[in-house]
Design goal:
Belongs to the NADH:flavin oxidoreductase/NADH oxidase family. This is NADH:flavin oxidoreductase/NADH oxidase N-terminal domain-containing protein. The chain crosses the membrane at residues 27-46, 58-76, 116-136, 157-179. The protein has helices at 9-52, 58-82, 84-93, 97-105, 115-144, 148-177, 187-216, 239-246, 286-296, 298-310, 317-323, 365-375, 409-423, 472-492, 506-511, 526-529, 531-543, 564-576, 592-595; strands at 253-255, 261-263, 327-328, 335-336, 341-342, 381-383, 387-388, 400-401, 428-434, 449-450, 468-469, 496-501, 550-556, 581-585, 605-608. It contains 19 helices and 15 strands. It has three domains: 9-216, no CATH class; 219-323, no CATH class; 334-608, Aldolase class I (TIM Barrel, Alpha-Beta Barrel). The protein is elongated.
C-alpha cells in the first residue's frame, strides 16, 4: 500500500484506490460468505436427513469439517477485516491459525504476491488432472452400467468442476494482470465455491443412493406363479436386488370365499386384466406392456413382463390349492405349512464398523420388525439373507455375521429375536450361511481368500483384491467357521441352515472350474471341487445332534455351464448326505465379452430333494 505520508496528488490517488480495493475485498468476502450461508440453509434439510440422522462414517466427519470449520474461519476473517483490533487479538491467541487454514485448503495469502502464481497454477493443473482421470473412469463405467450413482457423479461432478475450474482460472489470470491489491481478491470466493459444491455433491450422492435403495429393495413375500413355478423378473443388478425384485414377479391370486379377487399374501387385489388370463396377447411388445401400467398398476406390469419372458400362464384354483398344501422334508422330517417360501435377499440391516470386525453383523431392531412382518405372511419357510461366517469376508457392509470373534451374548440374543419373530406364526426359519471369498470388496479386506488365485473380473466400481488360495489348514478353518455358525443358528432357535454356494461366494468358487484352478484334493473333478461342501455338511451333522435340523443349499447354475453330468452327480451326492432341499439360481457376474457366448436367462427354482 502507498505510504500515507505521500501527500502528492498521485500518492493520494493511489491511497484512495487502494482503500477502495480493500473495501471491495471486504464486501466480496461478505458476498461469498452470504452465498455459502444461503446454500447451507437451502440444503440443511438434506444434510439432516443424509448426514446427521445416519451413522457417522469418515465421509460424514470430512463433510462436517468441510461444511462447518470453514465458515468459522471466515467469520473470524471477516470480523478482523472490519475490526482491526481482532487481527491483533486473534494473532496473539492463535499465532498459527492463518498458516493452518491456508495449509489445509491450499490457498495462499495475498502477501505471497507473484510467488503464489506458480502454486496456484500447479493447483489448477492438479485439480484438472484428477478430474480428467476420474471422469475417464466414470464415463467407462457409465457405458457399462446404469447405476444412478455413476450418473450423478458424472453429471454433477462435471458441472461442479467446470464452475470451480472457471473460478480458479479467473483467479490465476487476476494474479498476472490485476492491480497488486486486487491480485488475490478471488481467493476466498474460490475456496467457498469449492466448499459449497463439494458439500452438495456429497449430499446428492447420498440422496441418490438412498432413493435407488428404496426403489430396488422392496421387502415382500415370495411369489411362485399360478403354476407353482418361481418366476424371476428380467432385472439386471446385484443378486440381492435381483432376488428382491423376483419376489414380486408372478403375483398369485385366487378367489376368496366371498367371490372377490383377493391376494393370497395380503398384498391387495389384482387388476381386472389379470382375473382371466395372465400373459401377453399375441404380438405384445414392451410398449404395449407399459401402456397397461396406467390401467392395471404395478402388479400387472410385473405379471405381464414375467409372462412375456416365460410364456403365458392361466391360473386355476387347483394351482392355488397346491401352493397352500403342506410339504414335509424327507430327512429332517420338518413340515412347511405351505409350499411358498421367502428366498434369501441381501437385507443389509446388521451393524457395521469399518475398523472393528468384532462389532459387525448384529441384527438391527428394524430387521427384527421386518421378520415379524414376513412371519405374518403365511410362508412355509423364511430363509435369511447372507449371514457370513467370517467377519473379515463380507459381501458388503451391513451383512450379518456369526463368528467366534463376534459372539457376545447381546449379539446372539438379537439372532434369537430374529428367529422368534419369523417363527411366531408357524413359518420355518432357516439361516443362510455364507463366506464371500474373493467377492469381498477391497475396502473391507484387500487380501481375500478363495479356492484359487483368479481375481474377479466383474465390471464394477467396487474394487476386489487379488485372492490368496486357501491352504488345507485354511480350508479346515473355513469348515469350522460354517460348523460354528450352524451351531449358533440352532442355539438361537433357527430351524436349519442353507449353505450359500451361489453368486460367486466362496463355496461357489470351489465348485466352478473358472475360479478353482487347484491341483490338490480340492480341485479337478467334481468330487474334489465339492469336497469342502461335503465336509461342512458332515461336520454340521456331527456337531448339531438334532435330527430335525434342516440343511439345504443354494447352487449357482453358472458353475455347471456345459457340465450337466457334473451337476447331476453333485446333486445325487448331496441327496446321499441327507440334504433337505436344493435351490438353483441362474445368471452370471462376468461381463458378456468374457463369457464368449450369451447366457440363457434361467428361472430361479427350488427343488425339494
Amino acid at each position: 500500500m502507498s505510504s500515507i505520508t505521500d501527500m502528492s496528488p498521485e500518492g493520494l490517488a493511489r491511497t484512495i484506490t487502494e482503500a477502495q480495493h480493500i473495501n471491495a475485498a471486504k464486501y466480496y468476502l461478505i458476498a461469498s460468505i452470504t452465498m455459502m450461508a444461503y446454500d447451507m440453509v437451502l440444503t440443511f434439510h438434506l444434510e439432516y436427513e443424509y448426514i446427521w440422522k445416519r451413522k457417522k462414517t469418515l465421509v460424514s466427519y470430512l463433510f462436517l469439517i468441510n461444511r462447518y470449520l470453514n465458515p468459522c474461519y471466515y467469520i473470524i476473517t471477516t470480523t478482523a477485516y472490519f475490526d482491526p483490533s481482532w487481527t491483533f487479538t486473534i494473532a496473539v491467541a492463535y499465532p498459527n491459525i492463518d498458516v493452518i487454514f491456508h495449509g489445509c485448503i491450499l490457498t495462499g495469502k495475498p502477501s505471497f504476491g507473484n510467488k503464489w502464481q506458480m502454486w496456484l497454477f500447479a493447483y489448477v493443473v492438479f485439480d484438472s488432472s484428477v478430474f480428467a482421470l476420474v471422469l475417464a473412469k466414470t464415463l467407462r463405467y457409465s457405458r457399462e452400467t446404469h447405476s444412478p450413482l455413476i450418473k450423478t457423479l458424472r453429471n454433477d461432478g462435471t458441472a461442479y468442476f467446470v464452475v470451480i475450474f472457471t473460478v480458479n482460472v479467473v483467479w490465476l489470470v487476476m494474479t498476472f494482470h490485476a492491480a497488486e491489491t486486487l491480485k488475490n481478491i478471488n481467493e476466498h470466493f474460490s475456496h467457498l465455491v469449492s466448499v459449497v459444491l463439494i458439500s452438495r455433491l456429497t449430499i446428492h450422492l447420498r440422496s441418490e443412493g438412498d432413493r435407488h435403495s428404496k426403489e430396488t429393495w422392496r421387502p415382500g413375500p415370495p411369489v411362485p406363479s399360478a403354476r407353482g413355478r418361481h418366476h424371476s423378473n428380467s432385472f439386471s443388478g446385484p443378486p440381492d436386488q435381483t432376488a428382491s425384485v423376483s419376489t414380486y414377479a408372478g403375483q398369485r391370486w385366487a378367489r376368496s370365499e366371498k367371490g372377490k379377487n383377493k391376494s393370497l399374501d395380503g398384498v391387495g387385489s389384482p387388476p381386472e386384466s389379470l382375473s382371466t388370463t395372465i400373459g401377453p396377447s399375441p404380438g405384445s411388445t414392451v410398449a404395449d406392456l407399459n401402456k397397461d401400467v396406467e390401467k392395471a398398476g404395478e402388479s400387472s406390469r410385473i405379471w405381464r413382463r414375467s409372462s412375456l419372458r416365460y410364456g403365458p400362464a392361466t391360473p386355476s384354483l387347483e394351482d392355488a390349492k397346491l401352493l397352500g398344501e403342506a410339504i414335509t422334508f424327507k430327512f429332517s422330517g420338518r413340515t412347511m405349512v405351505s409350499r411358498i417360501y421367502k428366498a434369501a435377499t441381501g437385507e443389509r440391516m446388521y451393524s457395521w464398523d469399518q475398523c472393528d470386525p468384532s462389532a459387525r453383523g448384529t441384527p438391527l431392531d428394524r430387521l427384527v420388525q421386518l421378520y415379524e412382518t414376513w412371519g405374518r405372511g403365511g410362508y412355509g419357510m423364511i430363509i435369511s439373507g447372507n449371514i457370513t461366517v467370517d467377519s473379515k469376508h463380507l459381501e458388503i457392509p451391513g451383512n450379518g455375521v456369526i463368528a467366534r470373534s463376534n459372539s457376545t451374548p447381546a449379539h446372539i440374543e438379537q439372532f434369537c429375536r430374529l428367529a422368534g419373530a419369523g417363527k411366531a406364526h408357524g413359518s420355518l426359519v432357516v439361516m443362510q450361511l455364507s463366506h464371500a471369498g474373493r467377492r469381498t470388496p477391497g475396502y473391507i479386506n484387500s487380501q481375500p481368500v478363495s479356492a484359487g488365485d483368479v481375481r474377479s473380473n466383474e465390471q464394477t466400481i467396487i474394487p476386489y483384491g487379488q485372492p490368496t488360495p486357501l491352504t488345507k489348514e485354511g480350508i479346515a478353518q473355513v469348515v469350522e467357521q460354517f460348523v460354528y455358525a450352524a451351531s449358533i443358528a440352532h442355539q438361537a432357535g433357527f430351524d436349519g441352515i442353507q449353505l450359500h454356494s451361489a453368486y460367486d461366494s466362496l463355496l461357489s468358487q470351489f465348485l466352478s472350474t473358472k475360479t478353482n484352478n487347484r491341483s490338490d484334493d480340492y480341485g479337478g473333478n467334481i468330487d474334489n471341487r465339492s469336497r469342502i461342501i461335503h465336509e461342512i455338511i458332515d461336520s454340521i451333522r456331527k456337531e448339531v445332534k438334532d435330527p430335525g435340523f434342516i440343511i439345504g443349499i443354494k447352487v449357482y447354475l453358472s458353475d455347471f455351464r456345459d457340465k450337466i453330468n457334473d451337476a447331476r452327480h453333485f446333486c445325487q451326492k448331496l441327496q446321499g448326505l441327507g440334504l433337505d432341499f436344493i435351490e438353483l439360481i441362474g445368471g452370471d457376474f462376468d461381463p458378456p465379452e468374457s463369457q464368449g457366448h450369451s447366457v440363457t436367462p434361467l428361472k430361479e427354482v427350488w427343488l425339494p430333494v
